[in-house]
């Protein structure tokens, strides 16, 4: 597989997280949205990973940062869940553009349910159906495989689940042709970024494929072993102590230079990563920026 291209420079900014920080003017919400500002051949491009469950707090936080919705060039959806896709149409309407590229997995619009405490759709809402997205100006690009959406920025496609301690699924279900089946969340995708003379950076939504599986795959598809940054949600909020410990240790052994985790990561996992990684770990929060 060919190596990923290289950016001149890049910056990652958290537009939305479950946490907004102490004495912050930013809004928080259960959800995540991460902005990648990528500079290639002297020109800046803006790519958004996920859009929370509502666009309102994202748009509010962007206004505080002086970022116009119309300045976003593309959106990547990490997976189908409402807290990552719910703000899509609202955001597209605010951006006011046509043929707005939206990259996701082909299963993004599947019927996806939780049955505790009672049946509820946790996938893409009717308000964000493919038809509604296209009417609002979006143009879906649905891919199973890795895709370099610009030089130095790659979407992982489906991530192989190879680490034995990172089991698929979180107890949700798919419904297809009247049949109910456990959901392994195969649509979970992430973004890999490569800046000139730097290691790769990995941007995740919920890491349902397993954050270590994702890093392993990012290294394989990019052709680079050095990992400078991993940022996003790791979905360890209900994980066993053993899995949390193995995850923190694997991050240490992989030599990741900076880990910024929040959203669905969970307090126990954050505490363990802080203990194992020391100052390499930072809690995710709305408004945080990292220069790559």
Spell out the key features of this protein:
single chain; 292 residues; alpha/beta; Metallo-beta-lactamase, Chain A; 7-stranded mixed β-sheet; 7 helices; 18 strands; 22% helix; globular
Question: Care to describe what's here?
Answer:
The protein has 292 residues and is an alpha/beta fold. It has a single domain, classed as Metallo-beta-lactamase, Chain A (4-Layer Sandwich). Helix content is 22%, strand content 28%. The protein contains 7 helices and 18 strands. A 7-stranded mixed beta sheet has the order 8-5-4-3-2-1-18. A 7-stranded mixed beta sheet has the order 9-10-13-14-15-16-17, covered by helices on one side. Strands 7-6-11-12 form a 4-stranded antiparallel beta sheet, with no helix packed on it. Strand 13 and strand 14 form a beta hairpin. The two termini are 24 Å apart. 48% of the residues are buried. The mean pLDDT is 97.
């Amino acid at each position: 597989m060919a190596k990923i291209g290289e950016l001149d420079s890049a910056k990652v900014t958290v537009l939305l997280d479950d946490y907004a920080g102490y004495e912050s003017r930013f809004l928080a919400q259960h959800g995540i949205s991460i902005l990648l500002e990528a500079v290639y051949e002297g020109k800046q491009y803006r790519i958004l990973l996920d859009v929370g469950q509502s666009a309102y707090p994202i748009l509010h936080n962007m206004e505080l940062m002086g970022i116009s919705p119309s300045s976003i060039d593309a959106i990547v959806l990490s997976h189908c869940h409402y807290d990552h896709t719910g703000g899509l149409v609202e955001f597209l309407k605010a951006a006011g553009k046509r043929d707005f590229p939206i990259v996701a997995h082909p299963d993004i619009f599947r019927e996806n349910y939780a049955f505790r405490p009672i049946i509820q759709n946790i996938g893409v809402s009717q308000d964000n159906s493919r038809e509604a997205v296209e009417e609002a100006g979006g143009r879906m690009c649905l891919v199973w495989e890795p895709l370099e959406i610009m030089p130095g920025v790659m979407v992982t496609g489906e991530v192989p689940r190879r680490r034995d301690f990172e089991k698929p699924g979180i107890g949700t279900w798919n419904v297809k042709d009247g049949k109910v089946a456990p959901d392994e969340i195969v649509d979970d995708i992430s973004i890999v970024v490569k800046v000139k003379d730097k290691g790769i950076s990995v941007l995740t939504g919920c890491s349902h494929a397993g954050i270590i599986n994702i890093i392993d795959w990012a290294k394989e598809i990019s052709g680079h072993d050095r990992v400078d940054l991993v940022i996003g949600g790791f979905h360890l909020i209900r994980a066993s102590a053993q899995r949390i410990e193995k995850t923190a240790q694997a991050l240490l052994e992989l030599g990741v230079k900076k880990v910024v985790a929040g959203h669905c990561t969970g307090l126990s996992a954050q505490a363990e990563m802080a203990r194992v990684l020391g100052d390499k770990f930072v809690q995710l929060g709305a408004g945080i920026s990292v220069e790559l």
